[in-house]
């Protein structure tokens, strides 16, 4: 059995968004407003040619918006790709109970859209861009960094959840092989360095690709936290074909990736891939992402390592 995107806890429509903007940001009220997308946590509207409005559709999303407003302006200064730092803050008003944000609009499509015919990704460029992004992002985080019990933690903390999801999708993927891969990843020594900043949700749907096929922006920092950088490096199995995944790995090694990180990242890719698959019964795009990620994880079976490789 698979789960669907959680229902909205507050129904948002264009008239509400227009009212919030007119009341709180009157200088922007003349700009045309167009619904763009509804995600797990937020509804997104295009405002004019250069802006987006992000409004939480449930309490969890409101917590994430607040976190982005606190941390993204600080982090954006050191990152080589554009990120959606909030330019304007919105506050609860009337029946609408949560904070909201106005940020820049990044032209292009998500890398996930490219998987369905939007164009071709320049994977050579993507490997270099994402390696540089990860290197810049993965810096020591302060003790006050947001906590997240599902990201950046030791892989063993995710075992019960991952095994449960594997049981739910056993008719879709080769579960026995994936269990072996998971056990090997868990056997790799956990991250023992300082907690590093991590994006927390670095998958193709959160990468913006321009018409030239190059990654120009990373969006949706709602899972921003600190911990094991392998969480982000899992994008290797979600985005890249085999040969470019190897290039991405080599670039990360050149930039100082520590031993064991790549092997844990493979475990994170499995955990994220099966989670996506278990929640995507009504989303063909994310269903495909989950299947492709798990197949990529399985395609590296010859690279299985265990704890003895790190002793």
Major sheet description: 5 strands, antiparallel
CATH architecture descriptor name of the largest domain: Alpha-Beta Complex
CATH topology of the largest domain: Aminoglycoside 3'-phosphotransferase, Chain: A, domain 2
Write down the oligomeric state.
Answer: single chain
User: Total strand count, please?
Assistant: 10
Mean of pLDDT: 92
What share of the residues lie within helices?
40-55%
Which homologous superfamily in CATH is the superfamily of the largest domain? Answer: Aminoglycoside phosphotransferase (APH), C-terminal lobe
Distance between the termini: 40 Å
Using the alpha-carbon principal axes, give the shape: globular
Strand order of the largest sheet: 1-2-3-5-4
- The helix/strand series, from N terminus to C terminus, equals HEEEHEEEHHHHEEEEHHHHH
Can you tell me about this structure?
The chain has 311 residues and is α+β, with helices and mostly antiparallel strands. Helix content is 42%, strand content 13%. The termini are far apart. It has eleven helices and ten strands. It folds into two domains: 14-104, Phosphorylase Kinase, domain 1 (2-Layer Sandwich), CATH 3.30.200; 109-310, Alpha-Beta Complex (Aminoglycoside 3'-phosphotransferase, Chain: A, domain 2). It has a five-stranded antiparallel β-sheet with strand order 1-2-3-5-4. It has a three-stranded antiparallel β-sheet with strand order 6-8-9.
């Amino acid at each position: 059995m698979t789960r669907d995107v959680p229902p909205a806890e507050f129904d948002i429509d264009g008239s509400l968004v227009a009212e919030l903007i007119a009341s709180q940001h009157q200088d922007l009220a003349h700009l045309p407003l167009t619904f763009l997308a509804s995600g797990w946590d937020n509804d997104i509207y295009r405002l004019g040619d250069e802006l987006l409005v992000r409004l939480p559709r449930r309490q969890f999303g409101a917590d994430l918006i607040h976190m982005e407003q606190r941390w993204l302006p600080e982090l954006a200064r050191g990152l080589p790709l554009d990120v959606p730092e909030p330019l304007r803050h919105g506050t609860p008003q009337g029946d609408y109970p949560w904070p909201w944000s106005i940020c820049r609009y990044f032209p292009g499509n998500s890398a996930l859209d490219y998987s369905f015919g939007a164009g071709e990704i320049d994977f050579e460029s993507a490997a270099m861009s994402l390696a540089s992004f990860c290197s810049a992002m993965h810096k020591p985080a302060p003790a006050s960094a947001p906590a997240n019990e599902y990201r950046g933690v030791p892989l063993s903390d995710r075992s019960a959840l991952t095994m449960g999801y594997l049981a739910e999708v056993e008719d879709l993927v080769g579960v026995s092989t994936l269990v072996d891969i998971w056990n090997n990843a868990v056997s790799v020594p956990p991250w023992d360095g300082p907690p590093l900043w991590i994006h927390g949700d670095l998958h193709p749907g959160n990468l913006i690709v321009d018409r030239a096929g190059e990654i120009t922006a990373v969006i949706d920092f709602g899972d921003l936290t600190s911990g094991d950088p392998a969480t982000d490096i899992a994008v290797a199995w979600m985005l890249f074909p085999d040969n470019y995944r190897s290039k991405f790995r080599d670039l990360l090694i050149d930039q100082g990736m520590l031993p064991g990180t790549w092997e844990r990242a493979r475990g994170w890719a499995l955990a994220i891939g099966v989670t996506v698959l278990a929640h995507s019964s009504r989303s063909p795009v994310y269903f495909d992402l989950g299947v492709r990620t798990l197949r990529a994880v399985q395609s590296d079976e010859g690279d299985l390592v265990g704890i003895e490789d790190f002793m």
